[in-house]
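Pipeline run #58 for the internal structure catalog. This entry was flagged by the ingest filter as a single-chain record with no existing model, so it goes straight to prediction. Upstream metadata was stripped on purpose; only the residue string is passed forward. Reviewer on rotation: M.T. Logging verbosity set to normal.
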Amino acid sequence: MLRHGIGPVCYAGAAQNNRFGPVAWFLAVIAPRYNGYPPENPDTRFMIGPMQHAGAKNFLTSLSATDQACLFALNAQARQPVPEAWLPWHCDALPLGLISPERAAWLAPQLGTCSLQPNALVWHAGPSGAVQRSEQLQTILLAARGQGLLSGWRNERFSFWHADCITPEPQRPAFLSVERSGFRWLGMLSHAVHVNGFLPDGRLWCARRSFSKATDPGMLDNVTAGGLPTGETVEGCLQRELAEEAGLFSLEGQALQAAGCVRTSRLEPQGWHDEIVHVFNLTLAPDFEPANQDGEVAAFMCLSPHQVLAQALSGAFTVDAVQTLIQGLRYCA
């Protein structure tokens, strides 16, 4: 199944009011200050067993200083430039995201109470609450889907708190919650959980995404990676995704470490991708082999650090997977 000839690998479980111009607003309000930041102290909610960094440390020390520099240089891909013509859009004074001029022109009459200005689209929602905002926007997304403008519908909602929200707070009402495929389409900030699955000797379990996935089909990914749906905590998402994607139903015997988070943003076919990725390092038992349960992984493979580097440099991994690895390695360095 490998396309880049990286040598022997192990396979397991094949299954299926805006004061800024558009760009200045993004740089000033949604500034790239989230990349590579760990919590000040280890988060004991996510520590299973003794604190162990063996897998990540051995991965890193297996690479020469030159190879490490090549890998860490890929961090430049995390925050990509905003297209010059794109517009920020707000709900009253609250920034929501970034959209193309064409999408802004389509969206303005759908929203009704809004103003399309030269440098921003402003939705005047007034005193409406989160439920009303959510359902109005959800109806608009359904219309976009019906017109063939929005693809990859998942029937699952993501929540939006504000454009600087690092850690989501499900106990605090979100500003709105809508279909997850609408987040890129509307350029709004989402959250995800990704796990680096190391073996103690430094090898890394990687997943090849199902070829039927709406985003990044067939690309290499972290052993577990998933968006944070409405109503779920980061911890709950972590546990569910480990079970569904990798068949890891218990963390007994594994060493799990919260490794901070990284923000990624870039232009994708669906729109502007903007996401906070919550990163975890997991040192797995030497005899563990992941087994997908939900059909979202085509295969797993166990790669050496040099094989991972070769694949990362060739573009075989998703951008977010590479940034997850870099953040995890930075945290343990």
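catalog note: Residues 130-146 form the longest helix (17 residues).
catalog note: The CA atoms of residues 154 and 316 lie 25 Å apart.
status: ready for reviewer M.T.
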